[in-house]
Amino acid sequence: xxxxxxxxxxxxxxxxxxxxxLPHDPRAPGIARATLRLILEAHGRAELADDAELLxxxxxxxxxxxxxxxxxxxxxxxPVDPRRVRVAVWxxxxxxxxxxxxxxxxxxxxxxGGRGLFLVRAYAEDWGAYxxxxxxxxxLLWAECGGRGWRGRG
Length: 154
Prior knowledge:
The protein is globular, with a radius of gyration of 16 Å. By secondary structure, it is of the alpha+beta class. A hairpin with a 7-residue loop joins strand 2 and strand 3. The chain has 3 helices and 5 strands, in the order βααββαββ. A 5-stranded antiparallel sheet has the order 1-2-3-5-4, covered by helices on one side.
């Protein structure tokens, strides 16, 4: 017997936050992206995998290129809208990149550097940064996807 449901599909939030600690290794961003995709698929949110992976890729690459130590990927529900996922990357450098400061200019899409953060700002539904200059150290850059989706936007 086949059952057909006419109810719209309602996105289910990822139930908690996953954190993956990464060494400063050139393979780490790829491993983190694959892990992110696996987590989203395991929670029935595979439709977010491409968008979340793009955002994570840019944030992870930024952490790898501009820090010398370890970094971490965090994936969980967005605080304001839990149907969205928040992709965040922590690293040990407290300085928030100029292209990722609220109210600051985004990098030019044709510039030699900063294009990754330009992409994050352009494609994420929301984004931000927290600096931890005190006891924790470092910063956390984050981006959210999963509400309206960026594909097909004008």
